[in-house]
Amino acid sequence: xxxxxxxxxxxxxxxxxxxxxxxxxxxxxxxxxxxxxxxxxxxxxxxxxxxxxxxxxxxxxxxxxxxxxxxxxxxxxxxxxxxxxxxxxxxxxxxxxxxxxxxxxxxxxxxxxxxxxxxxxxxxxxxxxxxxxxxxxxxxxxxxxxxxxxxxxxxxxxxxxxxxxxxxxxxxxxxxxxxxxxxxxxxxxxxxxxxxxxxxxxxxxxxxxxxxxxxxxxxxxxxxxxxxxxxxxxxxxxxxxxxxxxxxxxxxxxxxxxxxxxxxxxxxxxxxxxxxxxxxxxxxxxxxxxxxxxxxxxxxxxxxxxxxxxxxxxxxxxxxxxxxxxxxxxxxxxxxxxxxxxxxxxxxxxxxxxxxxxxxxxxxxxxxxxxxxxxx
Length: 376
Known about the structure:
- The protein has about 375 residues and is an alpha/beta fold.
- The protein has 3 domains: about 1-105, ATPase, nucleotide binding domain (Nucleotidyltransferase, domain 5, 2-Layer Sandwich), CATH 3.30.420.40; about 115-205; about 220-330, no CATH class.
- It has 14 helices and 7 strands.
- It has a 5-stranded mixed beta sheet.
- Strand 6 (about 250) and strand 7 form a beta hairpin.
- Helix 11 crosses helix 13.
- It starts with a strand and ends with a helix.
- The model has no long low-confidence stretch (mean pLDDT about 85).
């Protein structure tokens, strides 16, 4: 089968085909559809490599409809293929390096989202843009009001416009009028997007199961599902935590283990949503919930910020396990697991203490023998 690589860009797409280590075809087009002369259904099928990016799903579907096989390349590991080495990185070079790597084999592949999860992510993206725009409008209005010595009320964003109109002077309300009207439009658009998200979530029974976890609502659950897509593609919870970027970075070269801040690899929006959920867990009034108790214990030892990240990471494992097993949140089971972990930790400490004690005793015996030899 032909080996082809595409470098997808915002303004152009670069084509490169290799055969037995030699470049046998190059092209640059402004639209992927223009590659029909190279990869169309009337041409021999090709194995095509593309890096995961915003338009990758559309290109993936198009190329497959033409009869080709598509390999989606994980961009976080593309450097190991040689992309960007020696300070040389152009569309032409990247496409050639990717094509040669495809011919050699062993490309780190990325997961292709199912169609329904793509639509779920698109709607979440629209909602996110509306929420961020609304928050920016509120911040701007509060700043404009403070210039006149007025502090606007603090309330839920959806009630902000009516509260401002009811509590400020006519002059200030008129001045803020264009922004308030825009805010009302965004609120109406939000209602439509939330309704559409509700329909999509209703088609996903797993989202309802994930919502049984403390601190997890429909948006966090839907975000988790839209990113992970298939729980069975991960073997362990740690792999999911690493995929989302909530595991500590590590540099153990040179025989010394150095652990740093979290990697922050993966979907940034999901990571932010999980952190929000973790804050909700720590602020919850459910004193008997083992997840909250676990987070509070970490907070007392190491501070709230570290505790929030730890709870967010724990949430990932819980959500993944619920999805994998088709179950719901069970605080008793979680409490039992936490108790097992504490017992295991205590046993480890006892083993370490015993080993240290034995080593100390052995060292003392050795010193005594040395003294006897010396004195003798």
